[in-house]
Amino acid sequence: MTTSAGAEGLRLEAVTKDDPQPCLVADRAEDFIFAIKRLYADGQIWSSVSRAGVEHVRKEFTLESQARDLETALQNILLGRTT
After folding, report:
1. pLDDT per residue as tens digits for the range 30-57
2. Does residue 25 contact residue 3 with C-beta atoms inside 8 Å?
């Protein structure tokens, strides 16, 4: 479970509509609560989201990808870029 703001750092743009969803996203409190209850009540959804989440992290947050991100961030700092 995450919010749209939290999802920005999770590289969810790499997930296609055909992929199992690695997390549920909700911004309003009542939607967040509904999604949590849904996950808790439905073991199949819980398992699917859990497996997809672990696989997404393994694929998107490798040591190499983190090193590239750090290098890019440092280059941007050195060049005075803000984005």
Report:
1. 999 999 999 999 999 999 999 999 999 9
2. yes
Q: Quick one: 56 exposed, middle or buried, by C-beta within 10 A (0-12, 13-18, 19+)? A: buried
pTM metric for this prediction = 0.72
CA distance 66 to 62: 6
Q: How far apart are CA 30 and CA 9, in angstroms?
A: 23
Backbone dihedral region of 80: left (phi > 0), alpha (psi from -120 to 50 degrees) or beta? left
DSSP states of 25-43: B--SHHHHHHHHHHHHH-H
CA distances from 21 to 4, 32, 41, 50, 73 (A): 14, 16, 17, 9, 28
Q: Find where tokens 């995450």 sit.
A: 2
